[in-house]
UniProtKB/TrEMBL annotation:
Keyword line: Endonuclease, Exonuclease, Hydrolase, Nuclease
Domain Endonuclease/exonuclease/phosphatase: 4-273
Record organism: Sulfurisoma sediminicola
Any single Gene Ontology cellular-component annotation: membrane
InterPro entries linked: Endo/exonu/phosph_ase_sf, Endo/exonuclease/phosphatase, GPI-anchor_lipid_remodeler
GO molecular function: endonuclease activity; exonuclease activity
GO biological process, one term: GPI anchor biosynthetic process
Name of this chain's protein: Endonuclease/exonuclease/phosphatase family metal-dependent hydrolase
Pfam families: Exo_endo_phos
Amino acid sequence: MRVLSWNIQWGRGIDGRVDLARTAAVIRGCDADVVCLQEVAVNHPGLPGGAGEDQVARLCALLPGHAAVFAAGSDLPDGKGGRRFFGELILSRLPLLQVFRHLLPWPADPAVPSMQRVAVEAVIDAPFGPLRVVTTHLEYYSALQRAAQVEFLRDLQATAHRHAVAPRSNAETDPPFAVLPRGEFSVFCGDFNCPAGSSEHARMQAAIAPDVPRLVDAWSIAHPGVSPAPTFGVHDRGFLAAPAAYDFCFVSDNLAPRVAGLDVDVLTPASDHQPVLLTLA
């Protein structure tokens, strides 16, 4: 199975145009079973290039046959009596078991711009068993917030794994209490807004607890000894002086034997980030 992670910059390509049909064409070309997208907008015409439509609905229409899970980190008034949203979207053509939406920590850091961030967790009914896929987008401007968000993700890995191996009681029969698999295998993917080799990148892979599988950058499994392919600043140098890997797929180490490939499409100019495709055997 394949898991795609891509910061689509609300469909805005390097040419400055917002074109979700172009975005969807790139996604279709990856033939992924699970698609994890960051920077998806709803009712945000003020974004560069314009993003006034419901991009969740539009992407679902362009990519039929997928179940959709959206979570907004940024949920703000639009000034016209409605709301505007900015967040992450998971599209899956495999069955979804459970879905969780996690607001990430946002400690005050008044010296820099920042926004509320979110992680979306979907438990996928994968061919080899329940798989937790978490996609997120960490803060770019604040190292303080980014560090707190990394710790949250590590805690999430511990909590979810413990739920997976020791499910709660099913004595309560009301439907909201339904006990479904949480999954002992996990993928944490997205735009981590830090380069490979950074303290945040290393902390994501540090040991968590003796009873919890640690997270490992799938690139190091698929390409041992090879520097990660760049995913940010490849076609647009507005933020970085040189291209670097900012987008990752971390897998739980009990899933590592199934990592069959990790590929980066460095050619497409359909966003300021490049798509990352994880293949699991």
